[in-house]
Specification:
The protein folds into three domains: about 50 residues; about 45 residues; about 110 residues, Ribonuclease H-like superfamily/Ribonuclease H (Nucleotidyltransferase, domain 5), CATH 3.30.420. Helix content is about 40%, strand content about 15%. The protein has eight helices and six strands; from the N terminus they run ααααααββββαβαβ. Strands 1, 2, 3, 4, 5 and 6 form a six-stranded mixed sheet that branches.
Length: about 240
């Protein structure tokens, strides 16, 4: 049970005074103030031990935190950051280990640097060019729209990774190409498209997702591959 909706400290003090007067027993007074006997005895003990100060609500925060980073360690990592403002938490941890110290986790170091005002929050740039689904081109003839995607990679019998690159004509649903590449990078992807262009000609539109190597960090989220397609007169759509 809780104290009535009045000043809690005043109510506690009144309760203690009435108990001290001895006019009524503690059980009766606890019912009168709508508190449990356990709560009543708690405030009596606090009053007897601390006086009026004991009637206040005490902080529930722990007096000691065993996981708190020692002040000496904080000063050491802050000094390293001041000496080289470009190093991050992981490198700071490595530097401290090289000095024979046991640094906290990089996430803790990052939090300490933030508390010390030694970090800058970065605004996340939306570099991906996204096109609304209702604006996507609806193909009305073959070679109008090609859809391109890297399927989930897997390891072949010799342990090497395999990234299947699939290219499909959206109008006819014909699988134009399916190449097993070692990595989803620009060079092997462009080599595959160079062969497809020579065999099937150029599509009007190529539709891709925002994964590597189709999207990049350039203007409009374009990658080197996108730029080459655009130079060939091929529109690029992202989904």
């Amino acid at each position: 049970m809780t104290w009535k909706k009045v000043n809690p400290m005043d109510e506690r003090l009144k309760f203690v005074i009435e108990v001290s007067l001895g006019a009524e027993n503690i059980s009766t007074l606890c019912r009168k103030y709508e508190i449990s006997r356990k709560t009543g005895y708690k405030w009596l003990k606090r009053y007897w031990k601390h006086g009026l100060y004991g009637m206040k609500e005490l902080s529930k925060a722990p007096h000691y935190c065993p996981h708190k980073t020692p002040i000496e360690m904080r000063e050491a990592l802050v000094a390293l950051r001041k000496a080289n403002p470009r190093i991050g938490p992981k490198k700071i941890a490595g530097e401290l280990r090289s000095l024979g110290l046991s640094p906290p986790a990089p996430s803790t170091i990052a939090a300490i640097l933030k508390q010390e005002g030694m970090t800058r929050s970065r605004k996340k740039r939306n570099t991906k060019f996204r096109q609304c689904p209702e604006r996507l081109t609806i193909p009305d003839h073959p070679n109008h729209v090609w859809t391109v995607d890297y399927k989930g990679w897997f390891r072949i019998h010799n342990g090497e990774p395999c990234y299947p690159l699939t290219v499909m004509d959206l109008f006819s649903r014909f699988l134009i190409g399916c190449d097993a590449l070692r990595r989803p990078a620009f060079e092997p992807t462009w080599t595959s498209f160079d062969k497809l262009f020579s065999r099937f000609g150029l599509p009007r539109v190529i539709r891709v997702d925002n994964g590597t190597p189709f999207a990049g960090h350039g203007a409009g989220g374009l990658s080197q591959l996108n730029i080459l397609w655009l130079r060939l007169g091929i529109d690029v759509e992202f989904i």
